[in-house]
Amino acid sequence: TLPLEHGAHRIGNRTDADMARWRSQRLGQFIHWGLYAIPGGEWKGKTYNGAAEWIRSWKEMPQQEYDNLYKQFNPVNYQPEEWAQQANDMGAKYMIITTKHHDGFCLWPSKYSKYSVAASPWKKDIIGPMVDAYNKKGIDVYLYFSIIDWNQPDWRAALKTPADSIAYQRFKVFVKNQLTELLQRYPTVKGFWFDGTWDDSWKNDGSFSDELEQYLQRLHPGLIIGSRLRADEKGARHFDSNGRLMGDYEQGWERKLPEKSADVHGNDWEGVMTIPENQWGYNARWAGHIKSSNELIEMLVKSASLGGNFVINFGPKSDGTFRTEEVQRMQEISRWMKINGSAIYGGTDAGFAKQDWGYYIRKSGTDSVYMVVCNVPVSGQLRVKLPAQTTLVNVTSLEKNIISGTPELIGKNEYFIHLDHKNQDAPFVILLQTSKDS
Ligand SMILES: C[C@@H]1N[C@@H](C#Cc2ccccc2)[C@H](O)[C@@H]1O
């Protein structure tokens, strides 16, 4: 292995209580909210086909006109308690909020930037009431923070001249000041979700990202920070030049998920997912494939079965309300989680051989293994192959009228579980109580 000063400082997952709590939560809510919700993917009658929160980069969008949108930010229907209630109903155990996206607009009245809610008609802090409302429901809050800041004159994508380096040095002080300010203003937050760390200026400054991560950990012990913040001294991101994960969990799964256990190498990881193909901020026109609740539930189940968290993104409108399709998804997922949430919370990789009908999830630290069935075979029987030295003790379903009769032994440690021939319109769950042969 290469001698690295700014690579991974820990081998293996964190074992402390804060990380165990994060690991048990499994379902999160991402919220992308900011000035980009005002145009909502459209400008002067033209439709922007990119991600709504990136509209400022669109050649049809005069950047000065975008930057002046702060003069219209006035979410008169913003009700953080309602946001928290619907997230709680959905079964989310943590929430990630964009404090500042790439455009640099701060949803809190920052001392270090004039480009914040304080300058808008709304005037008031958005983040504080949101953190309080979610915490009151028992939901942890993580702060999304974009290192890229298109509004800051000292931001540089690359350092080409000595003047660039001097400006960027000021920018790094600004970043550290804002992060310190966020932790001082919102001491109950559990971590940061960093983004916008792919440019050379950041990638080539591994020592700063390392020092910053350690500074934040000292300031707020137990803080959880994913792999996206970090680079090592050779410009490697997420995984250092020795292939070791930096940060507290792998944070690269954006709009994609691992397929199998081997893809995550035993690391903690989190997948973040949009409901449309690629819209994080509010886009008035949702084009392309819009994921159904069953699709999102299957992604959540797949994530838990591979020992990771799954975070569903929502983009509130500029007035502070949520679009109908997003409210529908939260309500449908809520109904499913109320019946089946026990299979998700505290779930992890069961180590069973994958079957076509769906996913196994082990309740961490127990012999309880949940089967979440997403694809009912036309045969009406579910094949279950237990690992060696494992005995099947009991089989029950979380809902009535799912299983027909008792499991049929068809080979060594292999069974068919026969299903009651009712057609199902959502994934359903069977609980296997197993025991290790002594
Ligand atoms: C969590 C997500 N990361 C951001 C991005 C991006 C991006 C930028 C360039 C190429 C591919 C993806 C999105 O705007 C959203 O905040």
Structural summary, described in words:
The protein has 438 residues and is α/β, with parallel strands linked by helices. It has nine helices and 18 strands. An eight-stranded parallel β-sheet has the order 7-6-5-4-1-10-9-8, with helices on both faces. The chain has a five-stranded antiparallel β-sheet with strand order 11-12-13-18-15. A three-stranded antiparallel β-sheet has the order 14-17-16, with no helix packed on it. A hairpin with a 2-residue loop joins strand 2 and strand 3. The two termini are 40 Å apart.
Structure class: alpha/beta
Count of strand segments: 18
**Total DSSP helices:** 9
Radius of gyration in whole Å, from Cα? 23 Å
Strand adjacency order, main sheet: 7-6-5-4-1-10-9-8
What is the end-to-end distance?
40 Å
**Helicity, as a percent range:** 10-25%
Shape: globular
Mean pLDDT: 97
Quaternary status of these chains? single chain
Percentage of residues in strands: 15-25%
Give a list of the ligands: (2S,3R,4S,5S)-2-methyl-5-(phenylethynyl)pyrrolidine-3,4-diol
Regions with pLDDT < 50 over 5+ consecutive residues? none
Order of helices and strands: HEEEHHEHEHEHHEEEHEHEEEEEEEE
Outline the biggest β-sheet.
8 strands, parallel
